[in-house]
Specification:
The protein contains 17 helices and 15 strands. The chain is of the alpha/beta class and 481 residues long. A 7-stranded mixed beta sheet has the order 5-6-7-8-4-3-9. The longest helix is centred in the middle third of the chain and has 23 residues. It is flat, with a radius of gyration of 29 Å. The two termini are 16 Å apart.
């Protein structure tokens, strides 16, 4: 369900044009913590809006002479206002406008964890006039009230969903404005250039000639800065979505042992019997700051066993869907016809060859084996049962995804796909301005694409915003955020 927004919303002194109608000042409420049966010691119900404080007074009893004032924590009981039945023993956190996450009056009930207490508190708030918040609506209100810009709002979602320390650090950098600040500076430069050009159009006779060389230099610098930020897009995509890696190969070559050694756990069953793994086994790892989903697949071979045949087919699908394939062979068996057949099925995918059980070969045999295997070029020797070769494997994976290139920008930020699309649009607009200048077209033509660049840069931070953009961003949030 899309957000219902007013025709025009004043945000930090700017009028943001919208297309739909909303009832201003509604009080919203939602469970702000994960609800899992018999898990978690504390559950939080968050409420924001003009009636948040009044509703809290109706349902929360604070014994003694506790003072109801902003940024205090009260101890007491949540109870039904009519029957006085106690629902939970809890703490109440009061945050009055504008010193709150949404810059509205906010209260939080810190209840006992689990399902029932928080749901009962939520129901009481709904009965007293609050409505259930939509996904991301608390953060949306923080944006509309000038508490956050769009890059910071997206960074909050990234921080909540981060799957590695590196991803969390990048999200925190965005939350601290390390993307918004350079984007605003670039937009301000473009606005200054536009003002210079429009002044010459309107008051040409009263002003000195336009410094065309200076304008060109400024545009070149803006383009260089945009390109530098755009170079972080691949890094951002990797940190947010991670890498899917499939371990494939014949039965009994050590795929499950490799997964267990890599994950330092007994995720997969390991036996000497071929076909032990019948289904895809997953493990979540972090390699060089990049989240990696490792898939241990069933051994690929022709079989009459119906269950194993299903597992083999799933292995083939996993290999085709993976970002990187680890083709594993048994060094003691050499490069077999079956290995060649599997290689031909996956050779079009990014591929690393894992030569396992290398401890079973003499040094001369290792050299002979290596000379026989011409493809793929990236080869790693391992003894998975003894956890040998894992560091070499991780280095090869980082090289395969060009991590050195991704980190070359040396910036403490990583943009997402929406931000990259807007930056690309700004870059193309500025390049068109360069073409317009080189073709010696009138100043009026310069301003057309310059305005396009300004609008595109404004879309990143929220100076230029549409309802569809907001709906797309905030609908991905959880309800309580």
């Amino acid at each position: 369900m899309p957000f219902q927004l007013s025709q025009s919303i004043i945000r930090e002194g700017r009028v943001v044009k919208m297309s739909k109608i909303v009832v201003q000042g509604e009080t919203i409420v939602a469970i702000a913590t994960a609800v899992v049966p018999q898990q978690g010691s504390v559950g939080i119900v968050r409420m924001s809006g003009k009636d948040a404080g009044a509703i809290a007074r109706l349902v929360f009893h604070a014994p003694g002479h506790q003072v109801w004032e902003t940024h205090r924590i009260l101890y007491g009981y949540v109870r039904h206002p009519q029957t006085q039945q106690v629902v939970d023993e809890a703490l109440l956190l009061i945050m009055q406008s504008p010193r709150s996450y949404t810059r509205e009056d906010v209260v939080e009930f810190h209840c006992h964890g689990g399902i029932i207490p928080v749901q009962q508190v939520l129901q009481l708030c709904l009965e007293q006039g609050a409505r259930l918040a939509q996904p991301g609506e608390f953060t949306l209100r923080a944006f509309l009230n000038g508490r956050l810009d769009l890059t910071q709002a997206e960074s909050i979602a990234d921080l909540v969903g981060s799957r590695s320390p590196a991803a969390a650090q990048i999200a925190l950098a965005g939350l601290q404005g390390k993307l918004a600040i350079p984007i605003r500076q670039l937009r301000a430069t473009c606005l200054d250039i536009l003002a210079e050009i429009e002044a010459r159009i309107d008051f040409e006779e009263d002003l000195p000639p336009l410094d065309e060389r200076g304008i060109i230099t400024q545009i070149e610098q803006v383009l260089a800065d945009i390109t530098k930020i755009l170079d972080t897009a691949d890094r951002g995509e990797l940190l947010r979505t991670g890498l899917k890696v499939a371990i494939v190969g014949r039965p009994n070559v050590g795929k499950s042992s490799l997964l267990n050694a890599w994950s330092r756990s007994d995720r997969a069953i390991v036996t000497d019997l071929p076909g032990t793994t019948r289904d895809v086994v997953e493990s979540q790892l972090v390699v060089g700051g990049i989240p990696v989903q490792v898939l241990d697949t069933a051994g690929i071979r022709e079989t009459a066993d119906r269950v194993e045949k299903i597992g083999v087919e799933r292995s083939r699908r996993a290999a085709q869907a993976a970002d990187l394939v680890l083709l594993t062979i048994d060094a003691s068996a050499g490069w077999t016809a079956e290995d060649q057949e599997i290689y031909e099925q996956v050779q079009h995918r990014p591929l690393i060859l894992i030569i396992n059980k290398i401890d079973l070969l003499e040094e001369a045999q290792k050299k002979t084996l290596q000379s026989k295997i011409q493809n793929p070029k990236s080869k790693i020797f391992t003894v998975a049962a003894q956890s040998q070769g894992i560091d070499d494997l991780e280095r090869a994976i980082l090289e395969a995804v060009h991590t050195d290139k991704i980190q070359a920008a040396d910036l403490d930020l990583a943009i997402n796909q929406r931000q990259a699309a807007a930056l690309t649009k700004a870059k193309l607009s500025l390049q068109q301005v360069q073409n317009t200048i080189s073709n010696q077209l009138p100043l009026d033509f310069w301003t057309i694409d310059l305005r396009g660049a300004i609008q595109a840069l404004g879309e990143i931070t929220g100076e230029e915003v549409t309802e569809s953009v907001l709906d797309r961003i905030f609908s991905r949030f959880c309800i309580g955020k």
